[in-house]
Amino acid sequence: MKCAIIGHGKMGREIERILIERGHSVELIIDEANVEELTSENIKRVNVAFEFTTPDTAPNNLRKVLEAGGRVVCGTTGWLQRLGEMESLAEQKGGALFYASNFSIGVNMMFRLNRRMAELMNPYKQYDVRIEETHHIWKKDAPSGTAITLAEGIIEKLDRKSSWVNSTPTAPEELEIESFREGMVPGIHTITYTSPDDFIELKHSITNRRALAMGAVLAGEYLADKQGVHTMDNLL
Hints:
Rossmann fold
């Protein structure tokens, strides 16, 4: 598989290492110093591009790849107000988009457990639910995309209203989420159901970025011969 990496930060470098370990080639690396090289001609030289940049730059990067009919795996969060636009572009141009708020296999299992937990807890109105997420100090969006996905899963299955801590237009407004930015933490997400008598806690902690990068590479391998819009549900 011939690959492009858009965003050569910590995640981009980890993805590069895993791609090489698994026998793939990295034909193009795009970073701040050479953004002009993200051209249609270069995109057509690769099977899959991996986009891990910032919320401000991701939509433009995705547009360039998709307009060229390319395939792209995107793990940048904080730009979801334009996700529908990019999905339509992938369909129109015959390219492929694979977006996930979190590529960790463990986190995606937590998404499923989260929805099932909400179903089980729905009859028990004495329990209030909240989400807490902690990431490293360089993460720009808060709450995290993973926390928003968890909140959406709960709201879908649980008939509850709670207070809202972080006033964020891209996040569900019916559920309490607390965001913390500390040190070098790759990512911790906790869902807590609390009653006057006890509490239930569902928690996932990432210990290193490799868990995320490996999931992204698996997504790229899956996407290499696909068209259209795909998610971790398709991969798993």
